[in-house]
Amino acid sequence: MEFAVLPDREVQRDLTDALLALGLTAVSTHPSGRPWLFSDAPDRWRVLTPGRGARVAVPEERGIGMQLPNESIADPQYLDQLAGTITIHTFFLTTIDKVSRVRGTISTDRQIFWGVVDGVPVATNTLKILHHLLNPSIDEIALTLSLISSLPIQPFARRTPWEGIHAVGVGHLLTFDTAGRVREERWWWDPGRDLDCSQATLAVRSALCSSVGEASIESALVSSDLSGGLDSTSICFILHDLGHDFTTYRTSSLSASNDETERARLVARELDIPLREFAPLAESSSAFDLDIETNSRALLEGPLVWAASRRYVEALAPTIARDGSHVHFTGLGGDELFDLVPGLFRSVWRENRIRALALIRHFQLSQRIDPRPLLKGAASKEHYANYLLRVARALDGGDSDLRPADAYSWFPPIVLPTWLSQKARTIIVEEIKKVAEDPPSPLGKDPAAQQTTESIAFQGKILRQFGELFHNFDIDWRGPFTDVRVLRAVLRAPATARFSTINDKPLLAAAIGNAALPDFYAKRGRSDFTSDIYAEHRRRRGALAEEFESCLLAEHDLVERPTIVSVVYEPSSNDVGLLDVERIATAERWLRGVHAMGRTP
After folding, report:
1. For residue range 152-170, what is the model confidence (pLDDT) as tens digits?
2. Which residue among 75, 312, 450, 483 is the one 20 to 30 A from 398 at the CA level?
3. Is 571 helix (H, G, I), strand (E, B) or coil?
């Protein structure tokens, strides 16, 4: 479903005609009679007219039963309360007292974009509409920032791949007034850690059951990932415990040390659920090829961070549709909620220093790392704004040095790789300095809450892109771990709830409880797909280096041509180096696709 929203002011007929030409239909006007809401699915909107010159519009989403009151709801304070309930799932639009407000979800799987078309601000849920109306150029700053893996998410979340098209910030809503002025208002606030472990377990369990149950209540058949890892399997445990019929899907690893295949098959047998298995990820991955992108929706989204899984999802989506499922669950966001994010050590230190010392000591020994930076990071009281300023000064060659302890601060220290051009370095440094000069209020009260909330917004963006790229299959991609109720429940839990010497992801294990197979969360060697990534790179690196002899990123003067060829062939021996190559290849592939389509798709 696509929609566009106009402010309560006079607009040129050309603009409304352009929206109609895109296949949108007028759904509702402002109380003044001026055009307000357009959509390609007008029958999916519920519009209320409660009086006092107000309109409320909410799209009906599959599998979500929402009750909107019929009584007068024109009071702005009540509308804000109602929005908090509705935007658990979807968008919430109001026009009252000549001010329009448009709000999406905290995870940004329901995201708002906006731009100014012939002097009129237009808000929409898809880049497609604004791109058609504005025909913008590439935002070279956004492209440059996409090359760096250690940037914080929140300060740059408003950027899109296109000049003049903006995303609404994480945890914010968009407002228009009659003069066409655009403003963002913050609605998200970290609830703070106010629950004990037992209370938090019940809160997380309730939130997960609500998220999974509501999304599947109206569907005859739903489906889910079942990788054999903790996150997607936890969703399967809940679906089974709630009594839903569902089918599961997975891809495998080439690594003999990855035991998730056997774990997934065991769960499928024990729960008596169908499991469809696809070829190993390394055989379908596209992390290191430069095939030109021809899907215009993919090009609109910019370099896809999940490009390595693209071919797998391209095989998965039609299979899900053929099997009859229209709601598909994924475990995206589980690591961000339940794993040990770097900022968590400061939270533990503030809760109980004696307990923190024991936990830090155990973590340091298990990871075989130097305890001194970890202890200094845990004891730090540095505020978000000051840390941003220090990072900016360090990158600008000032006298403020970044320290090993900063790995446990608000975000990891930013590293500028040697293969970046001087132009790219300047862009990144200037953007960090701008952020530091006018820092945003952090999304979390401490680094752990900040990192968790930022990451959930990042994972929600992936869900939104799944819907964009595979819209023809009529699948709602659901990530229960990105649900705002689950996020709030986790942020209210004590930091110590994420630590255990017995179980992996102990808060998640406790929340799933008896619905899980015995000992499923017991600590073991954690599986990953690193070997698959290395295997693909070894197979592709010769061709990749040859293809980078002609490099559009170098033509844009964002990377050093001689260096980049050797880097993509022989990255450093750690995972970060290889993931950097994946980012470079993703950006180059996207740029080639944009150029092939004639500057813009």
Report:
1. 999 999 999 999 999 999 9
2. 450
3. coil
**Model confidence pLDDT, tens digit, residues 49-98:** 876 678 899 998 765 555 665 555 667 777 888 888 888 889 999 998 88
Give CA separation, 504 vs 107, 156, 273, in Å. 24, 32, 24
DSSP code per residue over 481-506: GG-HHHHHHHHHS-GGGG--SSBSSH
Distance between CA atoms of residues 384 and 391, nearest Å = 11
Host H or E run for residue 545:
helix 530-547
- Phi, psi dihedrals of residue 75, rounded to the nearest 5°: -70, 125
Polymer length in residues for the chain: 601
Global confidence as pTM:
0.94
DSSP structure string for 339-402: S--TTHHHHHHHH-HHHHHHHHHHHHHHHT--HHHHHHHHH----HHHHHHHHHHHHTT-SPPP
Are 491 and 192 in contact by the 8 Å Cβ rule? The answer is yes
Q: How far is CA 87 from CA 4, 111, 177, 236, 487, in A?
A: 17, 11, 22, 25, 14
Cα separation, 273 vs 255, in Å, equals 25
- HSE value, Cβ hemisphere, 13 Å, CA-based, for 442: 24
Backbone angles phi, psi at 77, to 5 degrees: -65, -40
